[in-house]
From TrEMBL:
InterPro entries: GlpE_sulfurtransferase, Rhodanese-like_dom, Rhodanese-like_dom_sf
GO function term, MF aspect, one: transferase activity
Residues covered by the Rhodanese domain: 55-140
Keywords: Signal, Transferase
SUPFAM superfamilies (alphabetical): Rhodanese/Cell cycle control phosphatase
PANTHER family linked to this entry: FAD-DEPENDENT OXIDOREDUCTASE (PTHR43031), PYRIDINE NUCLEOTIDE-DISULPHIDE OXIDOREDUCTASE (PTHR43031:SF1)
Record's protein name: Rhodanese-related sulfurtransferase
CDD domains: RHOD
Signal peptide: 1-19
Length: 140
């Protein structure tokens, strides 16, 4: 009986410690997620919202796909700056202008939007879904 009580106590102690560790891991994960969301200094826009934006001649469209992707079809007046060349272009881009960032599916443009925002660009819009979801005019 004494042996049973010792085993029972050991089980509760070990179980209690592991439950506490899992709880602390979950709270750390939540804080990382909330920090990431706070640092996001650009806005996602749908194809329809982007089409409305393009009525403003001051909007600059940056297509961050490869040159091959760009040549397959792009938004009129878009400038091709592949993601791997974006950092080298910071000095030639005006940080106060408004930019619509475009790629094929929306992930590369999200990365580019993050980089631009982190480097002081003020008005960044990411086309969600990229050219795959674009419903406006396309130039081949």
């Amino acid at each position: 009986m004494k042996r049973f009580m010792v085993l029972l106590m050991a089980t509760f102690i070990i179980g209690g410690c592991s439950a506490q560790e899992v709880t602390s891991e979950k709270s750390e994960y939540k804080s990382v997620t909330s920090d990431d969301n706070k640092e996001r200094n650009f806005k996602d826009v749908t194809s329809e919202e982007a089409i409305d934006m393009l009525t403003d001649p001051e909007i600059n469209i940056l297509d961050v796909r490869s040159p091959e992707g760009f040549s397959e079809g792009h938004i009129p007046n878009a400038e091709s700056i592949p993601l791997k060349e974006l950092e080298a272009s910071y000095s030639t881009l005006d940080k106060t202008k408004t930019y619509l960032i475009v790629c094929k599916a929306g992930k590369t443009s999200e990365t580019a939007s993050t980089l631009l925002a982190e480097n002081g660009f003020e008005n960044i819009y990411n086309l969600t879904g990229g050219m795959d979801r674009w419903t406006g005019e396309v130039i081949n």
